[in-house]
Amino acid sequence: MRRLEVPPLAVIDEFLPRFAAPDIETRGIVAGILEDVRTGGDPAVRKHMLALDGVDIAPADWEVPGEGCHAALARLSPVLRDAIATAVDHVREFHEHQREVGFELTSEDGSLLGTRVTPLDRVGLYVPGGKASYPSSVIMNAVPALVAGVKEIIAVVPPQGVTDAVLAACALAGVTRIFRVGGAQAVAALAYGTATIPRVDKIVGPGNRFVAEAKRQVVGQVGIDMIAGPTEVLIIADASANPDWIAADLIAQSEHDEDATAWLVTTSPVLAGAMPAALERALGDAPRAAIARVSLERNGLIIVVPHLRDAIEVANRRAPEHLQIVAEGAERIASSVRH
User: Fold this and answer.
1) CB-based contacts of 331: which residues, under 8 Å, 6+ apart?
2) How many domains does the chain have?
3) Domain assignment of residue 95, given as a range
4) Active-site residue 321, yes or no?
5) Residue among 5, 90, 322, 328 flagged as catalytic
6) Catalytic residue among 321, 328, 331, 339
């Protein structure tokens, strides 16, 4: 990871994200797949699955039976099963506080005004699986839908991403149906519907550039959550932080993808100096160390600042997807973060 000294803040400018429109090639490939699936249905999905994933699965075998999820749950080690169940409980508890029911008010002339918030009937959840297994994506997207009262949660997973951990997460998080289909063809199937995969009202979940572009192109046909880019984290830490814990959190994001971004902004030169060794120790135990190492070397930064107010300003300029504060007075620091 590169090490920078701030101020001046201008030294981080070259590392800030730049707007990037989808490249013409990706846009064209995705448009072709979407049109194929819109007009061709299941056979088109199967054709692109064979061409892109290298597997030929008949539509009748796309769906994972419900008993398959429960069998996967039983096969997990007790430690992993309990960890997934705990994560589901924590995410559910958090999102129950977000649930909105709307409001009503009566005007002076007796008119009744208000807003009613109702759940969608059916949502589609894209679970990435090209490079790794992501039960966390299942939990973070399915549980909020379950809390909101969505009746049907349809998950699509690339064939190579269908692992026991993912299936167990689906079982515990309330996923209704699971299909072994990935890529832009899966997004198209959810958006338009096929004889096998039902059309949904909204598509959520992260994916590669083809999945992101497919979601962008079906907006209007269905709703989407967002156009997700590579994952990113920025950690604000002071001298009280444990370097091994900071290393673990940096790697937790950088192991997702070579394009992931992980920054540490610290007021402690001692912590900054301890990070290279801590990262090496953590990488030694990381199953996806090769990907994490490339990500950290390409996009990782250790930024040393004299005051926490400078760390806050770095965070405001970067506006990261994930922000962690590992410092004394964390809530006070968080109150000054704007972006």
Assistant:
1) none
2) 2
3) 59-224
4) yes
5) 322
6) 321
Return phi, psi of residue 39, to 5°.
-95, -25
Active site residue 322: yes
In a domain, residue 45? The reply is no
The domain boundary residue, chosen from 169, 199, 224 = 224
Q: C-alpha distances in angstroms, 198 versus 5, 126, 137, 192? A: 53, 14, 21, 8
The residue to which tokens 């971004």 are assigned: 261
Continuous segment of H or E residues that includes residue 64: strand 63-64
Handedness of CA 227, 260, 190, 75 (dihedral sign): negative
Structure tokens at 231: 């994952």
Query: Using CA atoms, how far apart are residues 165 and 169, in angstroms rounded to an integer?
Result: 6
Element at 103 (helix H, strand E): strand 102-106
Residues 130 and 248 both lie in one domain: no
Does any domain span residue 297? yes
* CA distance linking residue 118 with residue 102, whole number of Å: 9
Kindly state the tokens that stand for 162.
Answer: 């269908």
Residue 89 amino acid letter? D
pLDDT tens digits, one per residue of 222-248: 999 988 778 899 999 999 999 999 999
Decide which of 224, 254, 275 is a domain's last residue: 224
71 and 147 belong to one structural domain: yes
pLDDT digits (tens, 9 = 90+) for 67-93: 899 899 999 999 999 999 999 999 999
